[in-house]
Q: What sequence folds into this?
């Protein structure tokens, strides 16, 4: 029997009574586990197989299958504060999806990053506007896709104007534009903000103020790079954007109310 800590990235029903869960674990990276009878034996698994639950897992390692048998799953944190807030739960759901798309291997730094982000999301009453770009950019970095932002990723020169190349993974100078025809314009302010997001700890994120135009550009560049890196637009992002839009409208209507 092996033991580890994990975060539920996905779980779904299998057969009549069981569940299959995909975890990101501290010691084994992505781990798929079958919880036999989980839908019947509530007292054994409780809500531990719900999305983004943080659990202690005991499992029997399978020798010939990538799906292991879960013996026990004890919940360490359910993140009730996230689940009770539709915006926060849309963020956490989206995060679990992109982790699944970008990460396979074991890396304790990634595990701790996810825990720190979930705890922050649960506790913080006012979410900073840079929270999503911060998560996306740092997850890309931790997954090995950290963008080159100090000089042209191709010829190493320090040019005066740049484009961003998702293919090469960084900024490129005008001489190298033809190396990635899908590169997009990027402003020096955006590059500077991306560098700050990489150096910042989540706890101090709220101290960075940003004007809407710059926020729009940084979001655009990071999304373009993220979608390129995972080969598609994540499904749950649509929901996040709808909730954010609805929230902005609600706040605006409070402000304009007589
Ligand atoms: Zn160049």
A:
């Amino acid at each position: 029997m092996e033991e580890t800590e994990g975060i539920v990235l996905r779980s779904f029903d299998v057969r009549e009574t069981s569940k299959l869960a995909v975890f990101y674990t501290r010691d084994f990276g992505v781990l798929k586990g079958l919880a036999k009878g989980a839908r019947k034996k509530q007292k054994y698994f409780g809500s531990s197989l719900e999305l983004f639950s943080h659990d202690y897992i005991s499992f029997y390692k399978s020798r010939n299958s990538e799906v292991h048998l879960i013996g026990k799953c004890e919940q360490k944190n359910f993140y009730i504060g996230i689940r009770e807030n539709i915006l926060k739960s849309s963020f956490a759901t989206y995060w679990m999806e992109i982790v699944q798309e970008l990460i396979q291997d074991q890396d304790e730094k990634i595990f701790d990053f996810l825990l720190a982000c979930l705890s922050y999301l649960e506790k913080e009453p006012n979410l900073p506007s840079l929270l999503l770009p911060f998560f996306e950019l740092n997850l890309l970095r931790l997954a090995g896709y950290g963008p080159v932002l100090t000089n042209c990723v191709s010829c190493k020169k320090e040019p005066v104007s740049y484009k961003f190349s998702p293919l090469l993974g960084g900024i490129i100078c005008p001489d190298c534009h033809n190396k990635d025809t899908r590169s997009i314009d990027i402003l020096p302010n955006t590059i500077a903000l991306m560098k700050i997001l990489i150096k910042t700890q989540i706890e101090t994120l709220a101290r960075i103020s940003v004007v809407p135009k710059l926020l729009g550009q940084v979001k655009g560049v990071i999304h373009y790079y993220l979608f390129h890196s995972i080969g598609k637009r994540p499904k749950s992002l649509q929901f996040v954007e709808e909730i954010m839009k609805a929230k902005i409208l609600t706040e605006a209507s409070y402000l304009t109310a007589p």
Summary: The first strand starts at residue 2 and ends at 14. Residues 237-256 form the longest helix (20 residues). Strands lie at 2-14, 18-25, 29-35, 54-60, 67-77, 163-165, 170-172, 184-185.
